[in-house]
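Help!! Second protein's tokens look totally different from the first
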Amino acid sequence: MNELEYKKRAFCHYVKIWAQRFGLPLSEALCAKLCEHYGLLLHWNKRINLTRILDPEEAARFHYVESLYGERWLDPSITKIVDVGSGGGFPGIPVALARPAIAMVLIEKDRKRAVFLSEAVRRLGLENVEIFCGRFEAYGSRDFDGVICRALERMRERIPDLLAFAEESMQVLLFGDEDLERIVGESAASRWGVSSVIIPYTRERRLIILRQPRRFHVEPVT
């Protein structure tokens, strides 16, 4: 068994363990797709910088299971999501694999990473995913109703721009810490309802959840 196959086998083992710890369902089919993406990540990371987290257990936990944990908090009525600053495909690809009925746009400004994302989407057969190479402000369409973001460059500085970009969305999910939550709260208080949940098995890392109440209003039946 070569090193790549050894790491993929270890990854498959650990992703099941961590999904169970997080209380997340994980089918064999989904596990196989996550493992396939992990293998692509290992291969491409030799040539381009996609991530520093490559250890099978750490990748399973921090990249894949935490992404799936974020999916758990997405409103079920959302039909199209943009993943801003997707990098190696997180959290967008695990979310798209878990929710094949939604449309997903992976936004990545780095051309080499965007090429990797295109190849990963092709290899995984993700017909519900498209790639946009460029800054998120340049993405012209505003037909999405959900935004997810895990690792945007200079994220704290970009929060006002990101929330302006998402102003027509019903929900935004951000991965961050208490400091990011404070910044988000200061920027979003007038328009969004902001809450957070601590990511399991961490002390400070959290999922910051923004909702626009007007988008969730239901007219009474008459």
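Here's the second one for comparison:
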Amino acid sequence: MSNITQTKNMDEVVNWYKNNKPLYEALAQKVESIIKDVLDQNGLTYYLITSRSKDLDSFANKAKKDKYADPKNEIKDLAGIRVITFVRSEVEACKNAIKPLFKLDNNHSIDKGKALGNDKVGYRSVHFVAELKEDRLQLPDFKPFEGMCFEIQIRTILEHAWADISHDRSYKFSGVLPPDNDIERRFSLAAAALELVDREFDSLASEIENYRESVKQDTNKGHLDIALNTASLSGYLAQKFNTLINNNIIKPDYNKGEEIIINELKGFGIHSLSDLDELIGNNTDKFNFESNFIGLLRNIMILNDAEKYFAHAWNGKWNYIDSDGYFLFKNNGIDIDRIAQKYKVNTYFNGKFEDVD
């Protein structure tokens, strides 16, 4: 046992953390909530945000290392928050949104990707060590966390998977790898391949977004001879219903039903944006009812020709018309009771039919 370890009272250190662990857990949850609120308010995309206090055994194993003479003050990740994004560009966007929120400890914060340099591959992630700012500490809910550090990690899904695999004890990928079977070289190649895939996903996401923006511009100019696909449809709807979206009446998502609604539109005879634009017309105010993109498009088709929609596009993918939809169709001259009876669709008004096969 080293002299440093001997001078540390490990029982006292571990008991200190055992007593304070709930406070670090509460701190992690508070910071997670702050980050979520800011990212959501700024419309930034992310996959998952999690938080935790450090496991007691993990703390004990770390605290007994020689490099920690004063573990209570030197170990900075007792509260940890992890932001996982889909692609690399989102890491940068989230990083820029998060940095102003807290008092950063630049001596213990690192961008591991930049630290690798241009000639190496490996784990790439942004790590911030921080504390709450003074203005927040003045609030009663945050006062107990004064002087307490936390670590924020920001990385992509693929970087997260790599970190979990390479750091898992059962794989023991860390440290000096054995020379047998070219293991170290294969390890480096795997890391390089993962980085290439991460970059390609980022590039693809950027190209799709650029395409969507070009569709918005073409829509604004009246150039609509564009084939129907998820990206073109999203760009068109975002431009066409811009006012209703900004007023939070229409939610710009499909609730994971993109492929379903594309097939329904094609079944209805809509194969291009010009086809859809002709169906909608110029007066978008008539669609001033709460919905998302998939509900909006279904309502547009039903209002145009309910019989055609249920005969050729519906395909039994949904089986209930709520009160808003029922009266919307009824007030626009559609015999929705007859349609519902014919196609065995449940409605707010008529009760329940047997489930559609």
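Reply: Different proteins will give different token patterns, so don't panic. The mean pLDDT is 87.
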